[in-house]
Amino acid sequence: MPKSQIISKFLPTLLGIATTLIFGWAQFSDIPLLNALQQRAESMAYDLRLQAGITTEQTADSRIIIVDIDEKSLADEGRWPWPRNKIARLTDRLFDAGAIVVGYDLFFTEPERNMAQAIVQQLENSQPKAEQLINKLSKIAPQFDNDQHLADSLAGKDVTLGYLFHNENTAPVGQLPTPLQTLSTEQARRSGIKAMPNYTASLPLLQDSAAASGFVTIWPDPDGVIRRTPMLIRHGNHIYGSLSLNVARLYLFLDEVEINTSPIGNIDTVDSISLGGINIPTDGSGFALVPYKGPAGTFPYLSASDVLNGNIDTSSLEGAIVLVGTSAVGVADLVATPVDNIYPGVEVHANIIRSILDNDFPYQPSWADGANLIVTLGIGLALALLLPHLAPLTLLTTSVAMAAAVVFGNIWLWQEKGLSLALAWPLILILALTAVNITYGFLSENRKRSQLKNMFGQYVPPELVDAMSQTSENFGFEGESREMTVLFADIRGFTTLSEKLSPSELRTLLNRYFTHMTEIIFEHHGTIDKYVGDMVMAFWGAPLKNPEHAKHAIQAAMKMLERTAELKPILIAEGYPEIDIGIGLNTGLMNVGDMGSSYRRAYTVLGDNVNLGSRIEGLTKFYGAGLVVSETTMTGQDDFVFRRLDLVKVKGKTEAVKVYEPLCLKETATAELLDELQQHERGLDAYMKQNWMQAEQIFDQLKQQHPDTRIYALYQERINELRQRNIGSDWDGVYERREK
C-alpha cells in the first residue's frame, strides 16, 4: 500500500487520538482561558444535573427551622443591629420552645455600648462632677451590659455563633473558638486544607459562653454561584469547622470531629470528615458539595419578631435545630445558587446540616480528577479508533449513543452513589471527535470525489463517479486483474465515408455519433476507454465492480445498434452518408488500471481477452451481424436470444472460440424467430457431423426464407468448399479467420 494511502487511512484515527490527548492535558492545564472554559462548562452541567433531581413534591424538613430577621421583624422591633439583650431574649425564647441547637448566621464582633457606662464617662469629664449620680449609675451599669446579658443567655445552651475567615490585611477581630485539631508545623505544611490568614470572630465574652462557634465563610465559583462550601479551614497550625459542621456536632451530642486524610504526593488531602457514624465526603481541600434540595423556602421559616412576641406555635420548635439569619433589605445575606439566583445564605447551611443528619452527601473526592481523566481518555480513545471506520449516519448514531451512555452513567452515579464526576468535558470531547471525523470525512470525500472526477470523469457518467465516492474501495492507480466485459464498436467503411466528407463535416459527424454512443454506454454503467478514429472502446466491471457486466454490455450494444438505425434517416436527410456499425463483445480476465507514461496516462484495460474482443468486432462484417459476442459473454445470459454463429480461430489466436449473435430479449422473441433458430441449430449440428447434404438443405431453406441473413449463405459457401477439400474424420469444425 502506498505511503499516501497508509497516511490517509490512519490520519483520522491519529487526529482522534491527538484530540483526546489534548482534552486530557487540558483537564490539568494551567492556562487560564482553558481552565475558565472547562470550569464554566462543568458548572453548567452540574447545575442542570442538580436541577433535574429536584422534584416539586419536596416537603419541608421540620428538623431544621430558620428564624428570619425579616422586614416584619425590623418593623416590629426596630432597625438592625438589635440590642444584644434582644438577641438574648430571642435565644431564651427558642430554647424555651424546645429547640435543641441554635446556630447564629450573624456576627457579634464588637462590644455593644453600655449606655450607663457612657453617661458615667461623660459625667466624669464634666465640671463640677456629679458624684452622687455617677455612683448611682455605676451601680446599675451591669443592668445595661447587653453583651453580658447575651453571654448569660448563651451559657449552658447548645448555641453556635458565626464568624468569618478572610484575606483582608487588617488586625484580627475577636477570639477564635477552640480548634477541631492542632497540627504540627510539618503537618500544617503538608495539609491540603485551605488556609486563611485573618479572621473576624466573636467577642471573647460571647465566645467563651457559647457552646461552639463555626465560620460562615463561603466562596462562590468564578461565575458567582455557590456550589460547594468549606467544611474546614486552617489558620496557622489550627483547623476550624464550619457553622453547619458544629451545629450538627452539637445536635448529635459529639465532642470530637475526625478528619480523614490521604497523602497524594507532598500533600495530605482530605477524604472525608467523620461525625460518629456519619461520613461527610469532601474534596482534597475540605470542601463539600452543597446538596440543595430545592429553591429558596425549602425549609420552614419563622419571623424573629413572632418568636420574640410569642406569636408562634411552639410545638414547631420542639426538638428542632434553629438557624437564625436575616433576609431584610440592606442586611440580607443572599447568594446565587444552582437552584435559585436569589437564595438566603442561611439555607446553604441548612442544606449541609440536613445532609449530615441524613448521611446523604454528594461528593467529589480527591481522586475525582484522576477518574475524570480516565473517563476522558477511555471515551476518547474508543471513539478515535471506532468512528473513522463508520458511515456518517452510523457515526452520528454511535456518538449520540456514547453521549447518552455518558449522561445516564453520570446521572446514575450522582443519584445512586452521590458521586459527582465531570460531565461536560466528556460530552464536549465526544462532540469534538464527531466533528473531527465528520469534517475529515467531508474533506476526504470531496478530495476523493475530485480525484475520481479528474481521473474517471471522461470515462464514466457523473452518477457512477458519485457512486464510487460513496464506497471505501480504492479505485486507483494500482493495476489489477479482474473479470470484465470489453466492447469494440466500429463504423463500417469509414475510410470510404471519410473521403466523401470535409474535415469539418467528418468531425461533426463523429462527435454526434460518439455523443449518442457514449450516452448509451453511460446509461448502462459502462466505462469509456478511448475513441480511436471511428472506433469506440468501452468496458464493464471497472472501476466499480459489476457482477452483471456482461448483461449490461449486451444491453448497451443492442441499444447502440438501435440508436444507429434511428440516426440513419436523419443523417441521410441532412446530407451525410449512410452509416453502419459493428460491435464485438468479449468477457474474461483483463488487467485494468491507470497506465501510461509520466507525461500522459489513461485508465484502460489490457490483455489477451481485450485483443480477442477487438478480433470479434472484426467478425461482424464477415458474418453480416451487427453484434457478435464470445461464448464467455453469452454464458449465463438467459434473458437474451442468441444465434450461434461459428467456432472460429481469429488471427493471432491458437484456440478457437464460439461466437454468437444476440438477437433480442427472450420475452420479445417471436415463434417464427425461435423456429428459425431451431432449424439453424439443426443445420449447425449436421454441419459439425459432416452431414453436408442435410446441412446444405437446411441452410438453403433458411436462406430462401431469410435472404438478408448472411450467415446462411456463408455456410452454403463453406459446405461447398469443405466438400471439395474432402476433409478427414478428425475435422473439429473450426473455421480459421486469417483477416482481422
From TrEMBL:
Q: Which InterPro entries match?
A: A/G_cyclase, Adenylyl/Guanylyl_Cyclase_3/4, CHASE2, Nucleotide_cyclase
* Assigned keywords, A-Z: Cell membrane, Membrane, Transmembrane, Transmembrane helix
Q: Which residues cross the membrane?
A: 393-413, 419-443
GO terms for cellular component: cell envelope
Instruction: Give start and end of each Guanylate cyclase domain.
Output: 485-617
Name the major location. other
Source organism, top-level taxon: Bacteria
| A Pfam family per the record | Guanylate_cyc
Provide the GO MF annotations for this entry.
Answer: adenylate cyclase activity
- GO terms classed as biological process: cAMP biosynthetic process; intracellular signal transduction
Q: Where in the cell is it found?
A: Cell envelope
The positions making up the signal sequence are none
Does this entry carry the keyword DNA repair? no
* Family of the protein in this entry: Belongs to the adenylyl cyclase class-3 family.
Q: What is this protein called?
A: CHASE2 domain-containing protein
Please spell out the taxonomic lineage of the organism that makes this protein: Bacteria, Pseudomonadati, Pseudomonadota, Gammaproteobacteria, Candidatus Tenderiales
